[in-house]
Every structure is written in structure tokens, then in C-alpha cells.
Design a protein that fits this description.
It comes from Allosphingosinicella indica. The protein has 368 residues and is α/β, with parallel strands linked by helices. The protein is 33% helix and 17% strand. Strand 12, helix 9 and strand 13 form a beta-alpha-beta unit.
Length: 368
């Protein structure tokens, strides 16, 4: 199949440092190429891929210091639209800006939603564009928007060899991701200290979270039992995760997927995760870790997960969360859409939204 992958421009594909969405797009693109598909990637110019790359910005916008990505994204989408007839499938990873531009091509488009869907800010878009084919990255992610047109759930997957199996493990607990209130690094610090184990934290600090870090987290870092090493990339993850006794995932929000969980599993490192969002879909208690609901339960889970054979954790990763499994799942969705092509001209975009709220839109869109 001829497939276009349309990535956000915030980060390169793959990202230089933090960037879960762009990392997943890279893994998917490479796996689709491996499976023999003709893939084109629309992304930043510093992206690296074995697919055909269409550079749509000079570099990833976040590290270039550009905060508002709307203009660059719209310019990219305009180019995709002009070249749309080259492809059997247009696979978007940019949330919603493409909806009105590609409405007449909805039959050959699908959008993977990578973010949280429990906030009402974006709910009206699903009423206004009911024909859009959506993919969730966990079943929990789609729960707040049951009216949306989901055609499947595809769990993330990563290359088998990217983080090699580390049979020995280590003697510290790990936290990796982003310093923010919903990720709860404070919980991770408390769990490690109460368990009597060292904690190593590898995390980025966004500008929006600097005050939280300085006021709430920095004071907790005093002492040799907590090491903050900052943001890391793919090259550092095998050592960081492979040498950990367990990964702490103490989230306090509806995490849509939680990529770091499967990164740890690839190394054979079990995960102690709070029962929010996708966690019950990703973690198998007693097989890949433990699911807890309090700090006390997390502390008690430390010796439990350390007793899980690391080979068992790795085998579960290989069975459920590889990039080729992810790619095959997407190909099945692509094939289900193939041949739908161009749809008839749509009705007024506000009709569905208005009808869902009992509004009378007669005469809307006319003047005079």
C-alpha cells in the first residue's frame, strides 16, 4: 500500500530527547517499510527514516524555540492535501487541524489520537466531524468520547532490539518521563524512600512545569538516595532501564498509553503502576509488574515485583508490544478502509453538533 504518515512538527522523528508520539511514529514507519509498504513521512527536516521524507520544517520546533506550531502544521497539511492522490491511506498523528481540510477524503484518512480525551475542550469536534476515522491507543482513552468514530484500538509497539533484555537488573528504582503534577515524581520519591531503595529520575522539565519542579520536587532531591539526571534519549535508556530493579509509574491522571511501561518491559524490568488510564490494559499483575492504588501498596509491591523472573517480563513484551505487531494492526485498519476513497460533499459541519444539543440551525450559513 502507498501510505502517508503525517507527524507533528514539535520534535524530529525520531525525537532527539523527549517525544513519545514522534518516537511511536518512527517505529511504525520503519516497521511498515520492513513489511514492504511504500511509506512517505511528512515531518521535520531533521527527521531520519528509511521511508521517503517530506521535510515540512527545518527542524523540530520545540528545540528550535518555536512555541506556536499551528502555522507550520497548517502549511504541512496543505502540502499533504495537494499530494493526497498519491496515497491509498493518509495516517494523521496531529490531532484535529486536518479535519475540515480533508473532509472530502475521509474514507482514506485515519487519525491516531495520542493525547488525553477526558477534557471537554475538544469534544465538539467529534460531533462536527462524525465521519472521521479515529484510532485509540487504549480502550480507556476513548471512554470519555463514546460518540466518536473509533475504528479500532492499536497499542503502541517498539522495535525488539531497541532496548535489549537485561537479565541481571539492578538495585535501584527508576522514574522516567516528564516532571509534572500528573506524573507524580513526588510519589516516586516517597515510595523509594519508604522501600529503602535508591531512586534515579530521568525526566524533562517543560517551561510550564518549572515552578512545580522548583517548589515541590527540588526540595525532595536532597540526599544521596535520589539522583536526578535530567532528560535522556534512546541511547541512554537501555542502561537506565536495564539496570533498574523496577520502574515506578505513579501517575495521577488518565494516561492514554504510557510508553515508558513497555520500554521497561523490553529490558525485562517490572513496573509498579497506579491504576489509572491505560495501566490495567498494559500491565499484567504478577507477569510484568504490579498495579496499585496507594503509596503503601506500591511500597509493598517492591519485593513482589523483584521476585518476578525478568525473562517473563521480556517474553510478555515480545508477545504484545513489538513494532511489527503494531504495524500489522494498523495495516488491518488500512485495508478495511482501502477503496472507500472520496466521499460525497458533506453536510454543513455544524449540523451534527447542533443536533446533539437540540439546537435549531435552520438558515445557518446564510446572510441577509
Amino acid at each position: 500500500m502507498k501510505i502517508a504518515q503525517i507527524a507533528p512538527l514539535a520534535e524530529a522523528v525520531p525525537p532527539k530527547l523527549y517525544g513519545g508520539t514522534e518516537r511511536v511514529i518512527w517505529w511504525l514507519t520503519e516497521a511498515l517499510v520492513d513489511l514492504g509498504h511504500d511509506v512517505t513521512l511528512y515531518a521535520s527536516g531533521d527527521s531520519v527514516t528509511s521511508a521517503r521524507l517530506v521535510p515540512c520544517s527545518e527542524a523540530g520546533l520545540r528545540l528550535a524555540g518555536i512555541n506556536d506550531h499551528a502555522a507550520a502544521t497548517l502549511a504541512m497539511l496543505d502540502r499533504v492535501l495537494r499530494e493526497a492522490d498519491r496515497y491509498d491511506i493518509l495516517h494523521f498523528h496531529v490531532d484535529l487541524l486536518q479535519y475540515p481540510m480533508f473532509r472530502h477524503l475521509a474514507g482514506k484518512c485515519l487519525t491516531t489520537l495520542h493525547g488525553r480525551q477526558d477534557l471537554p475542550d475538544f469534544w465538539p469536534i467529534h460531533d462536527a466531524f462524525p465521519e472521521k476515522n479515529l484510532v485509540s491507543i487504549s480502550d480507556n482513552q476513548r471512554a470519555p468520547i463514546p460518540q466518536a468514530n473509533f475504528i479500532g484500538t492499536v497499542y503502541h509497539g517498539m522495535p525488539d532490539a531497541l532496548i535489549p533484555f537485561a537479565p541481571a537488573g539492578g538495585d535501584y528504582l527508576a522514574f522516567i518521563g516528564r516532571i509534572s503534577p500528573e506524573k507524580r515524581p513526588d510519589r516516586a520519591i516517597e515510595i523509594a524512600r519508604r522501600a529503602g531503595m535508591k531512586l534515579r529520575i530521568a525526566a524533562k522539565i517543560d517551561n510550564a512545569d518549572k515552578a512545580y519542579f522548583e517548589e515541590r520536587i527540588a526540595p525532595l532531591l536532597e540526599g544521596a538516595d535520589v539522583e536526578f539526571i535530567g532528560e535522556i534519549g534512546d541511547a541512554e535508556k537501555p542502561e537506565f532501564l536495564g539496570n533498574a530493579a523496577a520502574l515506578l509509574f505513579p501517575i495521577d491522571w488518565p494516561e492514554p498509553f504510557g510508553l515508558v511501561m513497555i520500554e521497561a518491559m523490553a529490558a525485562g524490568t517490572p513496573v509498579i503502576a497506579f491504576a489509572n488510564g491505560s495501566v490495567p490494559e498494559v500491565i499484567e499483575p504478577g507477569v510484568t509488574g504490579a498495579i496499585v492504588s496507594s503509596v503503601e501498596e506500591a511500597v509493598d509491591a517492591v519485593p513482589f515485583v523483584r521476585a518476578i523472573p525478568r525473562e517473563t517480563v521480556r517474553r510478555a513484551f515480545e508477545a504484545r508490544f513489538t513494532a511489527h505487531r503494531m504495524a500489522r494492526d494498523y495495516v488491518a485498519l488500512y485495508e478495511s478502509l482501502a477503496g472507500l476513497g472520496t466521499l460525497p460533499p458533506p453536510a454543513f459541519a455544524g449540523d451534527a453538533f447542533a443536533a446533539s444539543r437540540g439546537l435549531d440551525m435552520a438558515g445557518a450559513g446564510t446572510y441577509g
